[in-house]
Design brief:
mainly alpha, Arp2/3 complex 21 kDa subunit ARPC3, two-stranded antiparallel ribbon, 8 helices, 2 strands, 65% helix
């Protein structure tokens, strides 16, 4: 009986969080976005440089994907705009505690473009479709997000180092696939566990799930 009460409270709390998030003022949504930017900066300190490519392995991708779920599509993208913008003007929270520069161009800057687009896609789809909140649906969305990051990163990397298709794959995509699949799976598990399986945002398919409470 006690266990059932705890589970019911948990379901109710996760529903209330997302209902609350959708009703936030602009200032509060920006604050939540900034908090996720800080989480992305923290995750970037998980940093493993690779000798054959300018692109390191980092923990950023998990935070980027999760920002779309926590903040929603538009403000998930805003969270990464905060992260990228502040990093470019000198906040040392890029990979390994470094900062970027508006005056110089890095081969890794394309991944930052993907960081902004990926949570926008993930968040918009998740907020708009209840059916997208199952584990495998979330896993597909997270893998799509990873694909967006790879595409943007690889295009800019190839232009920066003047590499061909196979060299770009070797230096900008293939070394990270297994690690990022693990991150995508972990993020899908987290989002599945925290997302309500009922309507909190006027979803397209809310009538189909009208009987669900949380």
């Amino acid at each position: 009986m006690q266990r059932a009460i705890i589970i019911d409270r948990y379901f109710k709390l996760r529903f209330l969080f997302f209902k609350w998030r959708c009703s936030l003022t602009l200032a509060n949504k920006l604050t939540l976005s900034f908090a996720m930017a800080c989480f992305t900066g923290l995750s970037a300190q998980i940093y493993i440089p690779l000798p054959f490519t300018p692109v390191p392995i980092t923990g950023q991708v998990l935070a980027v994907l999760l920002s779309g779920v926590i903040c929603g599509g538009a403000f998930g993208a805003v969270s990464q705009l905060f992260y990228v913008g502040l990093g470019l003007v000198g906040v040392p929270w890029f990979a390994g505690g470094t900062a970027g520069s508006l005056a110089t161009f890095s081969p890794t800057y394309g991944y930052f473009i993907g960081f902004i687009i990926a949570p926008l896609v993930i968040g918009r789809w998740t907020d708009g479709h209840i059916e997208s909140r199952g584990f495998f649906s979330q896993l597909k969305l997270m893998m799509l997000g990873v694909g967006i990051i790879y595409l943007c990163g690889a295009v800019v990397l190839s232009l920066a180092i003047k590499s061909g298709f196979w060299e770009t794959l070797y230096k900008g995509v293939l070394p990270f696939v297994i690690v990022d699949l693990i991150k995508a799976s972990a993020t899908a598990g987290i989002s599945f566990s925290i997302l309500p399986k009922s309507s909190y945002n006027g979803e397209i398919d809310k009538a189909k799930y009208a009987q669900r409470r949380y």
